[in-house]
Amino acid sequence: MLVIIQKQITKIIFMNPLIAAASVVAAGLSVGLAAIGPGVGQGTAAGYAVEGIARQPEAEGKIRGALLLSFAFIESLTIYGLVVALVVLFANPFAGSKIHLLRKKLNIFLIK
Questions:
Q1: CB neighbours (10 Å) of residue 88?
Q2: What is the pLDDT of residue 18?
Q3: How many domains are contained in the chain?
Q4: How many C-beta atoms lie closer than 10 Å to residue 47's C-beta?
Q5: Where is average pLDDT lowest: 3-7, 68-72, 94-98?
Q6: 22, containing H or E segment
């Protein structure tokens, strides 16, 4: 059985201001750049779909089905950018890099 002996400490996570600023900028760029490509792609796909329906009105159902399916795939790319931004902001792997140094300084140890 392991017993953890600790001094009363609140969990403090130090975050370097440079890392915090870089995380915010990276999150903004992630969402912004992830929205540009799919936006252009959806516009192009919609334009060609309207052109195809204008040329062959009888194929409207097939064109619309393919268009909606392609919109779903294109939109997933934007969602990936959003997920990357949220990970960088809220689950930043560099945020708690000094917590181990704090534990060493306060002599937190395990006793068997």
A1: 20
A2: 81
A3: 1
A4: 10
A5: 3-7
A6: helix 17-55
Query: Which tens digit of pLDDT belongs to each residue from 43-91?
Result: 999 999 999 999 999 999 999 999 999 999 999 989 999 999 998 888 8
Q: Is residue 105 part of a domain?
A: no
Residues 62 and 54: their CA atoms lie apart, in Å, by: 13
Angle at 78 between CA 83 and CA 21, to 5 degrees: 50
User: pTM here?
Assistant: 0.62
**Residue 32 included in any domain:** no
Two structure tokens written together for 17: 């201001």
Residue with tokens 């017993």: 3
* Assigned domain for 85 exists: yes
Residue 56's CATH number: 1.20.20.10
Give the burial string for 60-85 (b: 16+ CB within 10 Å, else e): eeebeeebeeebeebeeebeebeebb
Q: Look at residue 99 and tell me whether its pLDDT is greater than 70.
A: no
In the chain, DSSP finds a helix count (H) and a strand count (E) of 3, 2
Look at residue 13 and tell me if it is in a domain: no
Tokens found for residue 30: 């992630």
